[in-house]
Amino acid sequence: MEDADRLRDEVLGEISRAETPDALEAIRVAALGRRGRLTELMRGLGALAPEARREAGAALNAVKDVIAAALAEAGDRLGRAARAAQLAGERADVTLPVQTGETGRIHPISQTVDEIVAIFGEMGFVVAEGPHIEEDFYNFTALNIPPEHPARQEHDTFYLPERPDGSRLVLRTHTSPVQIRTMLAQTPPIRIIVPGRTFRADHDATHSPMFHQVEGLVIDRTTHMGHLKGCLIEFCRAFFDVEDLPVRFRPSYFPFTEPSAEVDIGCSRKGGELKIGAGGDWLEILGSGMVHPQVLRNCGIDPAEYQGFAFGMGIERVAMLKYGIPDLRTFYDSDLRWLRYYGFLPLDIPSPVRGALAGSMAGGAA
Ligand code: DAH
């Protein structure tokens, strides 16, 4: 059948010249598709006499098989070629040196969290986290802050709309609720460090409605005030990288600790310039205390068997002190020039013992 042979030769020619899988698909549709040339020929068979129809049908089927085989073979060939081209295009030379020129920066908050976690990690603390939207029970009640307690007003809490039962969820005002969640979920010994976001309705040069805290909690049978002091002195000296940094524990009050202490570090303000270290002046940097027996009881832990200490610290505040960042609000401006100056190079890994490695500052602020 002349038509079929000519069609076969033409289509095989097109297939051999096809350069892309798309071109090949177009050839297939034009030949074998619903309105394809071969399909049309097959449709014409109906008009033939039975004998001629059988003969022509066999010939057309043979052509169809040849074309289908050629399409499959060409498809393989083009698929392999496309894959090879793709791999060649995506090739990365892993032996090239890292480009350290124009690159992103680690935000000082992230860097400070990494440093704090690295230091406490060395002491055997593990990181714990909790939700930003919190039940009143975890944020206040279980921490020994009952409904009428003045601390509730001091926290400038953001409340969510009342629920049908009259209760309200809160944006957590501190990281302390994670103490409760951890004590309820685990059995002592417990040693956690909790970095995270916190929220209070307060906004000025030294307050932001969203800020960061880090909480610490240790619970064991023999934990005492000496452990609290040793641990926090060691932290302050490592974090600020001042080996003889004076650290002072000042009696204070928190509903969830008894006794409670605020921790100050030594500094000097000579000539109006703040310098961390021995200098006769003091800077408050964190709150701490021995976990209140009632808080332990609220979490199903027997205070006759276990005791522990806790502390909480503002991350922005210690970051500002360590890196000489003057204004709290700039942390959240997403100003690229600020980030280039105060941010950190991604490849500088904070050392576990000494915080940031010397010389890791991107912009040279001291
Ligand atoms: N939660 C306190 C605050 O937000 C900080 C704090 C003080 C946390 C003493 C503690 C602690 O775990 O023991 O101001």
Please explain how this structure is put together.
This protein has 366 residues and is an alpha+beta fold. It has two domains: 2-89; 108-342, 2-Layer Sandwich (BirA Bifunctional Protein, domain 2), CATH 3.30.930.10. It is 40% helix and 19% strand. The protein has twelve helices and ten strands. The strands form two sheets. Strands 1, 4, 5, 6, 7, 8, 9 and 10 form an eight-stranded mixed sheet that branches. A two-stranded antiparallel ribbon has the order 2-3. Helix 1 packs parallel to helix 4 (50-89), helix 2 (21-32) runs antiparallel to helix 4 and helix 5 crosses helix 11. The longest helix has 40 residues, at 50-89. It binds 3,4-dihydroxyphenylalanine (DAH). 3,4-dihydroxyphenylalanine (DAH) binds next to strand 9 and strand 10.
Mean pLDDT: 91
What are the segments in which pLDDT stays under 50 over at least 5 consecutive residues?
353-366
Return the domain count: 2
CATH architecture of the largest domain: 2-Layer Sandwich
Largest sheet: 8 strands, mixed
